[in-house]
Structures are given as C-alpha cells and as structure tokens.
Design goal:
Length: 1888
C-alpha cells in the first residue's frame, strides 16, 4: 500500500489535526487528555488505514470495560510506503497527481504485526513488532553511491524483528519492554536536514497566534508549574526496559563516491527505568561504543579502517525522590581516541556539510547618487536604536528566582582514563606521535537552583621519539610521581540589581564564578626531536585540513628493505612482520640487487591496554629480519625498529676472510627504510654525476660498478668495497674527460689518522685542456652496533667527493667567469652557484665579467690562492670610453678542503624617489637616475673595510646632506637635503639581505600620497603666508600612489576634485591623523584624509566618505528651542531647529578642534572624543540633557529632554553584574629546552610564584599589604606559631592583628579579614557582562636559566627588583601586568577599549655566546645546516621584496576598527650584559655550534664594528600611548612592535657598537622642550588598575625617586676592575681557573661582609692554585700530549704562578666594590631554579630526577673530571662533615667539603681498572677491594689489594650503590669495545 504525501498535503493535515486538538483542549477534562495522549502515540506506530480499526477497538474496549468481557485484537500488514514530495512551484491547483521529479524520499515499513488483549479488570497486554524499516533518498539530479538511508543491518538471523515493543498494564502499574535491533542509519547530514525541514515547514504557524502565546506564556508557566507537581505525586508504578542492540550509524560528508571518507559508530545500549509513588530509579549503560573512520560503503573497506575511538563503556544511575532530591552517578572506564589527518579531514568535511551554506551577501550598492551629506534632516528620518526606548519591567518581577526552596541534588562524574593519540602518516596507516593521558572526576550539586560544581583533571603528555623508538615526556609528572592536575570550581550567585543596593563602591558578585587552579608546577620538556614531531604534525594536519586533501592516498609501507649489496639477497621477516600484498605467512623472499621489498606489521592481536600496545610495538626484539646475501652466510635477527647503523660479518665459504655488511635503518615520517649495503658509501657533492670504477687485479682493467648522482648516497657493492676505486664524470662531460689517474686513497692512510683526504685528477680528452679536479674526504661512519663474533671487522667509511672551488653569485646581475688555462667561459645567473671544476687553488687567475650593469659590461680579476683573506675587494672597470670602476667584494669560506667564494656588493641602493639621486663618500661618487629601475651596487673605497663608513646624499638640485651610516641594519630614518628655500626629506630604510652579506638600502620619498577614493583629485600646497595655491596642483588618479615633495614649510595641504572650482579646507600633512573628513561643498559630499607618520615616511591617504567618518552627528531632540553650534574660533555658526539633525565637519581642520554650542542661554564646549553627558535647566520644569556617545563609528551629540534616552545611550558605562567570571591561576610553569643530539639541557625557563604574601580584604577584593608590613606580619606569625599567644597583637603603632580568629583579622588601621597566601605564577581573571568585558592577567616572575656546563651567566633573563627602600613601601608587583576593559553594545561592531594598560617591570638579560649558539642550534632543523644543495635562487627573497610597490602595504589591512580611549604600554628598562666567552670545553663542538652565530659575526665584520663584552648596559625604551583614536587592531599591533624594536635596535647600535644612527635613539622627540627622557618613567612607579579600581576612578599618584648615586659610581669601578681581572684570567691559559672565576663572579655577594670574604678567598685560591700549578700542569700536559705537552705544561704552570695571585688581588678589589654597590641597592640575588637535567649516555630523555641532577651538577662543577667521565650515582655518607659517595662511569669517589674555602675535594678514589673483586654488601656496609696504590709496588706484583669499607645509611642504599657500580663497569666494557678500532686498521693496508 502506498501513500503519497507532499508538503502542502502535510500542511493541510497538520492544520486539521491541530485545530481539532485545539478545540478539544479548550474544554479540558482530565480523562480525555490522558486518553488522547495514548491515542496519538499509537497512531505514530502504525500509520495508514488502520486508524479506523484502531479507534473502533478503543470504543469497543470502552463499552466492554464495564461488563466482564475481555477483548483481543491483532492485525498485520505486509508493507506500507510513504513517498514524500517537494512542492511543485508551477503546479496548477487542478492537477491531482504528483510529479515524479519532485520526489524527496520514500519511507517503507515491512511486515508489521500488532496484537493485544484486554482483561475485564482493566489490565491489558499489547505487543507490536516491525521486521524492517527503510528510508530511501529519491531526489533527482543528485548523483550518489547509494540511496538507502535507513535500513536493517544484514545478518544471518532472518526471523528477528527490528523493532519489538510490548506493553503490560495491571492494577499495580505498567511495564514496557522495547528492543531496537540492528539499525543501520546513514546520517547523510544534508538529506536528514532536508527531511526534517519538510516536516518542520508543514507545522502551520499563524503570526497572531504566536504573538499571543508568547505574551501569555510567562504568567502561565508560573501557575502551571505548581499544578504539574501535584499531578506527579500520584504517579502510577511503571517500569520501562529498553535495549538498543548493535546499531550502526554512518556519518558521511558526500554521498557521491563509494569510497568517500566516513565515520561509523556502533554500540549497545540498555536503559531501565522504574517509578513508584516515592521514587524514580533509572539505570542506563552504553557498552562497546566505538567509532571507526573508513570508506563509506562496506564493499570498499577492506583494510582501510582506522579506529577513532576504542570500544568504551558508560554507566549512569539516577535516583529521584518525590521531594525532588536527586542523585546521579556517571562513570566511564577508559576512553581512547586517535586523531590522524585522515580522521580530521573526515570530521571536517562532515562538519562543513552540517553548517548551512551562508548566502552571498548582496553587496550594498554604493554607486547610488551621493545625497547631500551636509543637509539638515528631520529626526524622524533616523531609525536608530537609541531613540526607541524599551518598556520598563516592574521591580517586583525581577525577584522571582529568589523564592526557590533548596532541593538537594547531586551528580558525580568519573572518567577513569582518557587517552588521546595524535598520529601522522599517509592514509590509514599512521604512526602515533603524541600521547596525552588524563583522568577526570567531578561533582555537581543543586543544578536547578544555585549550582555548585567541582572537578579534578589530571594530565600527562608524551611524544614519540623515532630515533630511539621510545616515548619521552612532554608534560611531565609532578616530582616524578603523580600526574599534573587542575582543579575546577563553579558557583552560581543570585542575580542582583545594582539600583536596589546602597553604596557606590558596591561591585556585585558575578552570576557564575568559575575558578580554575593548579597547585603544582607544570613541567614541559621540549627537545629537538619534539620540535621535529610538532613540525610533522603541523605538516600532516594542515594537509589533512586542506580541502584538497586526497583521501585515496596510497599508504607507504612501515618497513622498506632496499638491497644495495650488489648481489641478490634472501629476506626472512619474523612472525610480527609480513610482506605487503602476500597472504599471512610465506617464509623467504628473494630481493634482486637494487630492488626493494615492502613489509608491514602482521596483524597483532590488540592487547587489552591501549597505550601498552603502542609501547609494546617499540620493543626491538619484536621486529627482526634475517638476511642472506647470495653466496654468503646469514645475518640473523636484525632488529629493525630503531634507526641506526649496525655492522655484521658474513663469510663467503670460498674466501679466507670474512666480509662486513652494514644495515642502515633510516626513519622517515614514521616509516623505516632498511638499506643493506657494504661498509663503504660515496657521497657526491658536485652538481654533476660521476661513474665509479673498480680496478680488477687479475685482468688489470677497470670495471664500472655504478653512478654516484649529485647529493645522493652511492653504496659500493659488497664485492668491490676493498678494491681500488676510480672515477670519471658522467653525463655531458663523459666524453670530455677520462678516468681519474689515481684511485681514491683512504684505507692506506687510516693507521695515521681517522680522516683521509686526497685529490684526484681526471685528464681531459684534449691534451691542451686542464684536468678536472676532485677532492675526496673519507670520514668514519657512526655505527650504533657492531656484531662480529670476535673476528676482525672492516671499518665503515663514507667518502665525500667535493669540488675544490665553488663560486656563488650573490649579485642581482649575472656574471661570466673564466679560469686561466680553460677555453670556455661560463655564465652564472644571479643568485646561482657553480662548481669550478678545474681549479687547483694554486694562484691561477680568475676573470669575472659583470653583465649588463648600467647598460655596460665590467671586467675584473683576482688570483685564487690558499691564503686569501676572509673578505677582499675586486675592482671592475667598464669597457666604455671614459674609465669608470665598480668595487665588489668576495667572501671566502673554507669547508674542509674546498673553498667557497661568494661575490657580493656590500650595499644595494634602491631609488624609489622618482628623482635623480647622487651619493658620495670620501672618494666615491655615484649618480642614480630617477628612471633607473635597477639596483646600484655601492661600496666604500677604503683599503681597510673595518672602518666606519658614512655617505652623503643629494637629491635633484639640493645641496649635500650631512653624512650618515649605511650599516645600522633594521633601522629607519630620514635624511634632510637642504635646498635654497626648502628641505628635501628622503626616507632611508636599511635591511639585511637574506644571505647576510649585503645591506639593502631603500630610498623613498618622505611623503607619499595615496588616493583610495573613487574621485580624481588634485592636491595643492598652502603657502607659508596661508594663501591658497594657484598654479601648482598635483594630479592623482583614483587608486594611484605618488611621491610628494613639499616646497615650503607651512605643513598644510588642500585638495580639490578635478573639474570643480572650490577646494577643501586646509589640513596638516605632517601630524599623525587617523581620519579627518574634509567637506567638499561643490559636491555636497566629503573626502576623508588620514595621515600616517613614521620616522622615515609619511603616508597621506584619501578615501571616500563612509558612515561614521564625520566628527559628529548633532541631534536636537527637544521640542523647545533652537541649537546653534560652531567650531571654536570659527566665524560661521550653524543652526538646528527642534527635532532636526545634521552632520558636522570641522570648519578649519588646522584650528583647535572643539565644538562650542548655545541652547537658549546655556553655552558649552566639547572636543567630540570622549563619552560624556551633562544637563542644564531650560525652565523651571524642564531639564535638558546632552550626551556624547559612539553609535558604531559615528560620534553622536544628542540634546534631549528624555532621561530614558540618556541612560540607553550610556548603557555600557556603569558597572553591571558580570554574567560570568573566570579565574585561572597556575602555581608555576617550567619549560626545559633539551638538545638531545648533544645530550644537554640547554635552558630552563620558569614562571614561578611569590613567597609568602599577606593580604587584606577591605571591600570585596583581596589586596596585598606592602612589603614592609608583610615582613612584620610574617615574623610575628612565626613567633605566634611557637608561643601561641592569644588575642590581639600590636605590630606597629597603628597596626593590630589577631591570628587566632578564623578568618584571621586586623582591627587597626581598619577592621577587615586578613590571610596568609602567595601570588601564583600565572593569574588570569576574565569577566563578562551584557555590555562589558574585562581581562586582568598577571605573570609574577619569569626567569630563564642557562643550563649548559660552565655558563658565564647562570641566569640569562630575570626581572630586576626595585631598590629596597622603594620595594618596602609598595606591595609585591608582578613582572607583567595587563588590564583590558572593553565596552560594546549589540547595535554596533565597533569595540570600545576603555582602558588598556600593560606594565612590564625592569629586567636583566645576560647572554654569552655559547648559550646563544646552543639555542640557535636547538631551533634550527638538523637536516641541512647550510642549504648547500640550493644552487639557484639564493637571492630570490630579496628580489621579491624589491619589487613590492610603495602602496601595497597600506592596502591589505582587513581587520575591524576599534576605538581606543586609553591605551598605554609602559616603558621598558632592560639591563644587557654580553659575553663573547662560552662556557665548557670541547673545541670541536664549539666550531659546529658557532655556525649559528656566524651570520651575526659576518654582519659585524662587514660593518667593521667589533663586538666586545658589555656589562650591565641600560636600555630605556619610551612608552607607547594613544588616546581617543580609532585603530585597526593589526595596524596597532604593528605600530607597537615597531615602536619598541626600532628603539632597541638603535640603542643597541649606539651603546654596544658605537655606530651613528639616523634619528634619535631614545624614542621620538616630541618637541625639544620636553627633553629626551620625557617619555620614560621607572616601571615600578607605574600602576595598573583592575576593572574595580577603574570603576571607582582611583587615580594613583606617582612618586619620583632619587637614589642609586653611591651604587652608580661603585658599579662603574667594579666593572672596570672586573674586566682587568678577566684579562689576567685569559693569560692563565688554564680553562678550569677561568671557569671557576666566572662562576665566582657571577654568584654575586650577598652583602658587604660576604663580599670582602669572597675577595679574600679569591686571593687565597690564586696563591694555592698558582703554586700547585707549577707541579701539576706539566704532568697533566704529559698525560694528554706526550713530551711536548710536558714542556707546554711547565710554561703554563709558571705563567699561572705569576698571574694567578695577581688575578686574585684584582678580583678582591672588584669583589669588595661590588659589596659597596650591593649595600647601596641591596636586592635579593637571583639563583638558578634547578640543577641541569642529567641525560644518560643513551640520549633518551627521562622525567627529571632531582637527585641525579644534583649529583651530576656536583661532578660537573666541583670536581676535576677525567676525560669523557659521566655521572652514574651518588649518595650521602652519614657523618660529621658533608661527605658523598659518587659512582661515575670510570671510578668510585668519596668527596668531602673543605671548610675554609667552601670547596668540595676528593677524599679518595678507586678507578674500575684497579678493582680486584666485585664490590659486596653486608647490611649497610659497602666493601670495595682494590689494588694497593703504593708508589713503589710493581705493576704486576700479586698483592691481594686492600678493602675499603663505606658505611652508608641503610641496606637498600648500599645495595643501590653496589648495583650502580656493577652497571657502570659493564657499560664501560662495551664502550671500550666500540672505541677500539678494528684490529685490521692497525696494520698498514696493502693495496689488495
């Protein structure tokens, strides 16, 4: 049976139904309403013609109830289908058939059966079954993979039904059982929305009904509530059991493709509900909820399934009592989610389909005729929000919700574990990279009335380190034990109305207060591998999020085996791996030479614990391969999970010796590539390929073994790696050169050194040409494992092929070069690199030609020698008639045995002024034509480029400017060129090129005019006498940008529209102006001008009038009198009649901008910037109010007699009750930066909380006491803790407190509660109400520590506390304090920033070169340290930047305008110390790290400035402030950043490098009268107001300070002697002495006495050290370097004996001076937050362990280490002095503290080599037996040795110590094996 239903039909039906029901309900009778409800429910279940039957049944049953007859019914039908049609718009009413093309969908019910019995006592049984239900999508014109939307999941069991309902009712109550089985829903979002729409639209809504209902509603609900509760109390008993078994819900974004990405969810759900008269119990559970991401249709799925959510379960139980009391418990066991790019993409596409498409806004037609802007309009024409007034609500109504009787409600939620993994990779096979684990438990109370909730969340995050295949901590546990946790409190407060409560300072509690706090330190660890993972994730997820994401990507295999041995191999994976594309287990695979084999994980049974399965995949023994090269023995069980290089031996049965095979495992994006190769690899660094030959002995011929391509690894085959190898260029050069004359020598030299270099020559085929030269370098490969079964093994080496000379062209022009002795010239395009193949670097001449520069070619030449300096100039001369020259420079860099020459010009000059420029310095003079678009290459003629160079400038006809420097990179400025009656201003900006050698100087006109309006304009300059311009008008077309050169000094312009007579009023073009509207009377319109001034440019922009750009809209909203107004000082007055409005523009934009108005006899003045209001009497009865406010961007000045309008216009002004307030406080945060390649913690950054702070609560907020009072309170509190005195304690003459009360209290000077607390490291408060938002954020203390060994400055960055005298009187201040208060209203998009204040305290930055290098190395990816591979486009970024036009910057800003009333960022005061020393030893390492700092040095060298150590330079950066201005947010942000960065750069150049800067380094001078320092105040004088203080209008006075005088003078002396001491320390070439001295000096003395003591100690140590040095130095020298070392050592010792004591004396002077300085300032010393993290030899980062770190710190800094010694374990030895037992990887030490010097020294030590027996433990005694240490014992005398007994704390400590010693010994053994070179190397190799 079919039913066709269109939207109209449904609408009619619904109308009939609703109207009938409506009539019925108008005569309510309780029985009927109950019956009706039941009937409607039945109708839903079976629709169709059986309505009638059913109703008959009901009537029958009615009759039969009274008699004693029972009734039974049942009916079936095969199928019912309902087809839904969309409306046909064109259909005439006569047609009765539906058009098929408008079909929407079909709903079918199959095999529905219903049966029921009714008994005479009124009880009944009914059951309904439905076999299947389907819904199909029948719309035409939509292609889709399937149209079935709802269906039953297909399975074997055919006789079960999909829906099964049974209902029983008897006198005890009723019971319902419902089962929904095997439902399949394809949630095609778009179709479901359409069907839902179909039904929603059909419900008729008559507008008047709706209005009526809404009006009556509030009253009804209040009465209705009470009724329903009464009805509820007579509930019958009822039980309901419902089950949903095994449904499948598929979410898919697009139905068009069968393999489109989709999410499928499946679960089991049980619900049981039982109600009785007294209570209602409910239990619900959802089990096995799991979500998969997979292709849409089943057939397509196969293996492409990703589990998004592992099966998880949720249980809920709820009890509710008749009183309304409720109890709910919700519990989730574990919740494991996986997120990968493909999942993200699926979810995003589905979400995108969900959100409705926004219709394109019809762009408002702006081209309509501009009506007269300045005309007078009637107020009735304005339909604005502030003129309509809401009806007031009665006061009584707002009190409703206070009457709640409190009902107890309680809900507990527990989630035992949440795990989220982020994975990356291709397609569905991904690798986990981040793993977050968390627990959650919470409690909610009384949610219907005033809710209160608390919750606890814990968090721990790991990332996956591919290199070691382990999880490393990202967010660590707290102290290694528990997870970091966060507490959440939510509390609701009653709504309060301010007007009902007295007192102005009253600030109502927010309606909802949320407090989030954490009392633990959150420690975050970031390492190089972690940064790498974030890169991968970012890359993967941004690709996934892109709409172009291709979800059908083929997956890459997790393991690829490459055969590079040169012979076929057999591979046998173990049981956990299998070959892709093969059935489960087939054993052995053949891989031919050069072929690959792809492996994947065999399906592992998922283990119960989610994260264990991830962790267990790392175990190396799980994934192994066995490999057999053809004709050799096998290599068994190679673990392939971890990257590395492993060496194995294989034997050829016929050969006498074994061969070695190397297994190289590389990780790329989570997939491993396993290359099997011989121990020899060739890397070609040329841009051409080479053919590799081997020499075959018995036939004396060369045999070709392969081609080494550029920048690729070439693996020498297994049978050839011992042969002699020859090379020959390949490709085009193959026929020009022969094979090399000699072979690559490396093995022959290995017994002499580890690196071997040699030079090969490939002779040219033509006899007269030069040979091709190749440099080779053989370096040992870094192996991670050697397995040789005790035989010798072959060393693994990599041979690098380098060109001897590389030429880089870093000019914006191309070059030709020719090498002496070669025939052809080569062209080198700009920014390219070429290898010069023939150079021997032996003095041959290279000729260069600079092509097409200024229309000519220029020749230059130089000799290539080994001894070239780092920079040298080359002079090029042109081939034209008169001789002109250009100087270019060459930078020489040596890398190994090759040389890289870069040709560059020190300066590029770019002329954008459109005038002729000339430059001159001492003896260079260059002309730069206006139309010359190219770049002038400029350099100074100095023979020595290290002197300060200055240049002068001349523009068109002007005189020469004063000279200025071109070296201050990153700074901007303006140069004045005087002319006869005016000055030309030229903007100069100096940038560094991307390659750090050239400085790019751009010269721009100081003024540019941009016309963004739609009109064609002419701009004229007002003469100095104020007369209008007559002849000189500059024409500017629409959207054009032109330079403007003012010709007189008036500073004013005016503008006119082309074709109009009159011009605008004059305006200033040299003052910052964010928009002034100039009225154009002729056009009845206006044009907006804004002027943006910076140090090197002024941009004047004209744009069209837009709403809100007029200074004011003036409204006379009074019926009484006229309003006259004018600009102050202007003659013309305007008149507004009552109820009229008019726009106002300044009559003279250059005059004072104030508006004067007169109304009746009242006069006033207003500047049209602030929001203000006022009032005046008109006559005895009438008050007239005026109010100035913003409506959107338009300032409105409104005169009215209606108070309601005023309050509405100013609605955002007064304090409102906040809707919610969020408080976030984090105790502290630590960020540890670790370089896991060098196994060092580089830096630890800590945000920490304060010490004890006492606070008081005078009003609503807690406020801290001043520092002085805090100290008083804390002292007496500590006393009180001991003595327990009761009652009031007098602290000071007007200060009394009581510690016994709870809360503690103060009664003098005022009575209020007090508390003992601390300030959190990070504290954020956010409040929002209907018209206001406020944010207050504070960061208490930020400190950056240098954790590298032997740092010059242990603390790199820290806030500087103000001098004691000031600090005592003020409360503790956070380092950074930000307060933002904004207002907004619903009628406008413009946000008003009432108050924006940032206060940053004084700070110190102390950097040494080592630290800087380490940080840069940490953040530069390792892959390619200098993009060597880049051979072209080296200067592309610079060229792109040049072509940028003048205009484009100002065109792009799209952000919204905001109005800033008060915006202030405090001055910045920074103490800078720089040291060029770097701590620690290891000179090789320094060389690599310093590459990072090289670019800075390059820059300095080329400027000719030398960087020296600076100590405590003070930078003062002026504050930034704007008031009452419209700004775009981006524009403002850039402006702030530029303001501070430019000042900093300039002061850096002036103070540190001593260069001259354009402009004034100390901020902009705003008029000389104010002086330079006027824009600076001491940061601790600043004050930040929170929203409360701001509202109360507190103004905080600023006290001015003097002090610092003694301290200042002493500081200078202390600095001087400090550097002399440093010089002497450098004479003593003894690294350790320098190191200790640095540490001593950086640990500043605590007070004067300590300082003297330290000074004395330094002297003492100098003497002792000097004398002992004479003896110990030669011995150390001999140990390290043999005999030569001994004599060197004697020299060192003698110099040291002289220098050390004097160094000590000078230090003593300096140290005591520092003491004086300290006494004057007396601030607390800043020390490191924690000792550096210890990273073990395996390089794996483990959670921070304080004990280990302290021990390793002790070993690093207080004991003389042996070479390569690392810490293993330490523990204290109980006893009188501080004594420590320490185990390192080489010995056991006992360390004691020496009293006088406060040093640690070694008491005794036992190297492992001297152990006779392993150590043993009995109770708490550790016994170590070692050889006796006598001097005269023979080495081999068989003495039993002596036993040392160490008494430790307890047995476990002793056990631990013993285990540590044994571990250390065994690893030492393994290391020795790796260190010792193969025995084969030690004999010189015979060429085989």
């Amino acid at each position: 049976m079919k039913v066709a239903l269109s939207e109209d039909d449904l609408t009619v039906l619904m109308k009939i139904l609703l109207e009938n029901l409506g009539e019925a309900s108008s005569q309510p009778s309780p029985t009927q309403s109950v019956q009706e409800a039941v009937r409607v429910r039945k109708v839903d279940v079976s629709s169709g013609p059986d309505h009638l039957k059913e109703q008959e049944d009901w009537t029958d049953s009615k009759l039969s109830m009274n008699q004693t007859v029972s009734l039974q019914f049942d009916f079936h039908f095969e199928s019912l289908s309902i087809i839904l049609y969309n409306n046909d718009i064109n259909q005439e009413s006569g047609v009765t058939f539906h058009n098929d093309s408008f079909q929407l969908g079909e709903l079918r019910l199959h095999l529905m059966a219903s049966s029921g019995k009714m008994f005479k006592d009124g009880s009944m049984n009914v059951s309904v079954k439905l076999k299947t239900c389907t819904l199909d999508d029948l719309r035409e014109g939509i292609e889709r993979a399937t149209s079935r939307m709802i269906d039953r999941k297909n399975d074997q069991d055919n006789n079960s039904s999909m829906i099964d309902l049974s209902y029983k009712q008897d006198k005890n109550g009723s019971q319902i059982d419902a089962i929904l089985d095997k439902l399949y829903v394809c949630a095609s979002v778009e179709f479901l929305m359409t069907v839902a729409d179909f039904f929603i639209k059909a419900v008729p809504q008559s507008p008047e009904n709706v209005a009526k209902e809404t009006q009556i509603l509030p009253r009804q609900t209040a009465t209705g509530k009470v009724k329903t509760e009464k009805d509820d109390s007579v509930r019958p008993n009822m039980t309901l059991k419902a089950m949903i078994t095994d449904p499948e819900v598929v979410f898919v974004a697009s139905l068009t493709k069968a393999d489109a990405p989709a999410l499928t969810a499946s679960f089991q759900c049980n619900l049981s509900l039982s109600t009785s008269k007294l209570e209602q119990m409910m239990e619900a559970s959802v089990r096995d909820l799991k979500v998969l991401a997979c292709p849409f249709l089943r057939e397509k799925r196969g293996k492409n399934i990703t589990t998004v959510l592992q099966p998880c379960s949720l249980f809920m139980e709820k009890c509710m009592w008749a009183s309304g009391k409720q109890n709910i418990n919700i519990m989730v066991k574990e919740f494991i989610i996986k997120i990968s790019p493909i999942i993200l993409n699926t979810v995003m596409t589905i979400m995108a389909a969900l959100s409705p498409k926004t219709k394109e806004d019809e762009s408002k037609d702006t081209s309509k005729e501009m009506e007269n802007l300045w005309g007078v309009k009637s107020i009735n024409d304005y339909n604005t929000w502030f003129l309509g007034v809401d009806m007031a609500t009665e006061v009584t109504e707002s009190f409703k919700d206070i009457e709640h009787s409190l009902i107890e409600e309680n809900c507990g939620v527990v989630v035992e574990s949440i795990q989220v993994t982020l994975e990356c990779g291709l397609g569905h096979r991904t690798v986990p990279l981040l793993l977050a684990e968390s627990k959650f438990s919470g409690n909610i109370k009384n949610w219907t009335s005033l809710m209160a909730a608390t919750a606890d969340v814990t968090l721990q995050v790991h990332y996956y380190n591919e290199i070691h295949a382990v999880w490393e901590p990202l967010i660590e546990r707290v102290e290694g034990k528990r997870q970091w946790n966060l507490r959440l409190h939510v509390k609701k407060n009653p709504v309060q109305d301010k007007s009902l409560l007295p007192g102005d300072d009253f600030i109502p509690e927010p309606q909802m207060a949320i407090h989030i706090s954490s009392g633990n330190t959150m420690n975050i660890t970031i390492s190089k591998s972690c940064l790498n993972i974030f890169n991968n994730l970012a890359k993967g997820f941004s690709e996934g999020a892109a709409s172009t994401f291709d979800y059908s990507l083929k997956d890459r295999a997790p393991f690829t085996v490459k055969n590079a041995v040169g012979v076929p191999i057999k591979v046998k994976p173990n049981c956990n791996l299998r070959v892709m594309g093969f059935p489960e287990k087939s054993d052995i695979f053949d891989v031919d030479a050069g072929q690959n084999l792809e492996l994947e994980y065999a399906s592992m049974a998922p283990s119960s614990q989610g994260n264990l399965s991830i962790l267990s995949r790392q175990e190396s023994s799980f994934f192994t391969l066995t490999i057999v090269p053809h004709g050799y023995t096998e290599v068994a069980n190679i673990p392939v999970a971890r990257p590395g290089r492993r060496l194995y031996n294989v034997r050829n049965p016929n050969a006498s010796h074994s061969d070695s095979v190397l297994v190289q495992i590389d990780a790329t994006e989570g997939n491993k590539v396993i290359t099997l190769r011989s121990p020899l690899q060739i890397k070609n660094h040329f841009s051409i390929a080479f053919i590799i030959y081997k020499f075959v002995k018995n036939v004396k011929l060369l045999e070709r073994i392969g081609i080494a391509r550029p920048e690729e690894e070439f693996h020498v085959p297994l049978d050839s790696y011992r042969c002699q190898l020859f090379i020959q260029p390949a490709g085009i050069l193959e026929h020009q050169y022969k094979e090399s004359t000699t072979y690559i020598s490396w093995k022959e030299e290995l017994h002499r050194s580890r690196e071997v270099r040699c030079m090969l020559q490939c002779p040219s085929v033509e006899v007269s040409f030069l040979p091709l030269i190749v440099n080779t370098v053989a370096l040992p490969d870094e192996l991670s494992y050697i397995c040789t079964h005790g035989e010798d093994w072959d060393v693994a080496y990599i041979i690098h092929l380098y060109p001897s000379l590389t030429l880089r062209n870093l000019l914006p022009y191309s070059l030709r070069y020719l090498l002496e002795g070669t025939a052809e010239t080569h062209e080198l395009a700009e920014g390219s690199t070429a290898d010069v193949l023939h150079s021997r670097i032996s003095g041959e001449i290279m000729e260069l030609v600079l092509m097409k520069y200024q229309g000519k070619n220029w020749n230059g030449h130089f000799r290539i020698r080994d001894t070239l300096p780092e920079f040298f100039p080359v002079c090029f001369s042109s081939d034209s008639t008169e001789v002109t020259t250009v100087d270019l420079s060459v930078h020489v860099r040596r890398i190994g045995s090759r040389m890289v020459l870069s040709v560059f010009s020190p300066y590029w000059l770019i002329n954008k002024t459109s005038r002729v420029l000339q430059y001159r310095s001492e003896d260079t003079h260059v002309k730069h034509p206006a139309d010359f678009r190219d770049i002038i290459l400029f350099s100074f003629k100095k023979k020595n480029i290290f002197t300060k160079n200055k240049v002068q400038l001349k523009i068109s006809t002007s005189a020469w400017s004063s000279s200025f420097s071109l070296d201050t990179v990153g700074s901007y400025g303006c140069v004045k060129c005087p002319a006869n009656n005016m000055e030309y201003l030229v903007g100069v900006s100096i940038k560094m090129s991307s390659f750090n050698l050239s400085r790019i100087v751009t010269l721009t006109p100081f003024c540019t005019i941009a016309n963004k309006s739609s009109l064609e304009l002419e701009v004229g300059e007002i003469a100095s006498d104020g007369s209008m311009p007559t002849n000189k008008w500059n024409y500017i077309a629409s959207s054009e940008c032109l330079p403007f050169w003012p010709e007189n000094l008036s500073g004013k312009l005016c503008v006119r529209v082309v074709g109009c007579e009159g011009s605008s009023k004059p305006f200033f073009y040299n003052r910052q102006d964010n928009g002034t509207l100039l009225s154009l009377e002729d056009l009845n319109g206006g044009i907006l001008v804004d002027v943006n001034t910076a140090e090197h440019s002024t941009v004047i922009t004209f744009s069209d009038y837009h709403e809100g750009s007029a200074p004011a809209l003036i409204m006379n909203h009074t019926p009484w009198d006229i309003l006259t107004y004018k600009q102050s000082g202007s003659p013309e007055e305007m008149v507004l009649l009552p109820r009229q409005a008019r726009l106002f523009a300044w009559a003279d934009p250059t005059g004072t901008r104030k508006l004067t108005w007169t109304y009746a006899a009242n006069v006033g003045e207003h500047d049209l910037l602030k929001d203000e209001c006022g009032q005046f009497p008109y006559d005895a009865n009438i008050q007239i109010h005026w109010v100035s406010f913003l409506d959107g961007r338009q300032r409105v000045l409104l005169f009215t007699d209606d108070v309601a309008l005023v309050s509405k216009a100013l609605q955002a002004e007064e304090m409102e009750q906040a809707d919610y307030e969020i408080n976030l406080s984090l105790h502290s945060l630590g960020l540890s930066l670790v370089n896991n390649e060098s196994k060092q913690e580089v830096s630890y950054i800590g945000i920490t909380s304060s010490g004890v702070v006492w606070e008081m609560k005078p009003k609503r907020k807690w406020k801290p006491f001043s520092q002085k009072q805090i100290i008083l309170l804390e002292q007496s509190y500590q006393k009180h803790q001991i003595s327990r005195d009761h009652g009031w304690i007098k602290l000071d003459n007007n200060f009394e407190v009581n510690f016994d009360k709870d809360p503690m209290e103060m009664r003098l000077p005022i009575r209020c509660p007090i508390k003992r607390d601390f300030l959190s490291g990070i504290q954020i408060e956010f409040k929002q109400s209907s018209h206001q938002r406020s944010l207050r954020a504070r960061l208490y203390w930020l400190q950056v520590d240098n954790q590298l060994p032997g740092a010059m400055f242990p603390v790199v960055f820290h806030p500087v506390a103000p001098p004691k005298s000031i600090a005592l009187d003020s409360e503790p201040k956070p380092f950074i304090d930000v307060s933002v208060i904004t207002r907004f209203n619903e009628y406008s998009k413009v946000l008003q920033f009432k108050y924006f204040m940032v206060l940053i305290q004084e700070m110190a930055l102390k950097i040494d070169q080592g630290f800087l290098g380490a940080i840069i190395v940490l953040f530069t990816p390792t892959t390619d340290p200098e993009a060597e591979r880049k051979r072209t486009k080296l200067i592309q970024p610079d060229i792109d930047a040049l072509n940028a036009e003048l205009m484009e910057t100002s065109m792009t800003d799209m952000s919204i305008l905001s109005f800033f009333e008060h915006f202030h960022i405090s001055p910045v005061k920074l103490h800078l110390s720089l040291s060029l020393g770097s701590g620690g030893e290891g000179s090789d390492k320094e060389k690599q790290e310093m590459f990072a700092v090289q670019s800075v040095n390059l820059l300095l060298k080329s400027i000719g400035a030398t960087l020296t150590d600076v100590d405590d330079l003070i930078f003062k950066l002026a504050y930034y402030e704007i008031q009452y201005q419209f700004y775009k947010r981006d524009q403002l942000m850039w402006s702030v950043v530029r303001h501070y960065s430019e000042q900093f750069l300039k002061q850096m150049y002036v103070l540190v490098l001593g260069l001259d800067v354009l402009g004034n380094p100390f901020g902009l001078i705003r008029g000389l009268s104010e002086g330079v320092e006027a824009l600076f105040y001491e940061p601790f004088q600043g004050a930040v107001q929170g929203p409360e203080e701001f509202a109360e209008g507190l103004v905080i006075g600023v006290r001015s300070l003097f002090g610092h005088t003694v301290g200042g003078a002493a500081g200078v002396v202390s600095r001087i002697t400090g550097s002399v001491g440093k010089g002497l320390a450098a004479i003593t070439m003894d690294k350790e002495y320098q190191q200790k001295r640095r540490e001593e000096l950086s640990r500043q003395p605590k007070d004067f006495g300590d300082s003297l003591a330290r000074g004395g100690k330094g002297f003492l140590r100098g003497v002792v050290g000097g004398v002992t040095g004479i003896i110990t130095k030669p011995v150390e020298g001999a140990k390290k370097e043999g005999a030569a070392g001994f004599f060197k050592g004697i020299g060192k010792g003698l110099v040291g004996a002289v220098a050390r004591p004097t160094g000590g004396i000078i230090d003593m002077a300096s140290s005591t001076f520092q003491g004086i300085q300290r006494a004057a300032e007396s601030t607390e010393e800043v020390s490191s937050l924690r000792p550096p993290r210890l990273i073990h030899e395996d390089g794996i980062i483990r959670p921070y362990d304080r004990q280990e770190s302290e021990g390793s710190d002790l070993l690093e800094n207080h004991i003389k280490k042996l070479e390569g010694e690392t810490y293993r374990y330490h523990c204290a030895i109980p006893g009188s002095k501080k004594t420590i037992l320490m185990v390192t990887n080489r010995r056991v030490l006992c360390i004691k503290e020496v009293e006088i010097l406060g040093l640690m020294c070694v008491d005794w030590q036992c190297p492992f080599e001297d152990f006779v027996f392993p150590p043993s433990v009995s109770e708490n005694v550790l016994k170590i037996s070692v050889k006796e240490q006598g001097l005269f014992h023979k080495k081999d005398s068989a003495s039993q040795g002596c036993v040392r007994k160490v008494y430790l704390k307890d047995t476990t400590t002793a056990e631990r110590a013993r285990n540590a010693i044994e571990d250390a010994q065994s690893t030492r053994q393994q290391q020795k094996l790796m260190k010792q070179s193969s025995v084969r190397l030690l004999r010189p190799q015979m060429p085989s």
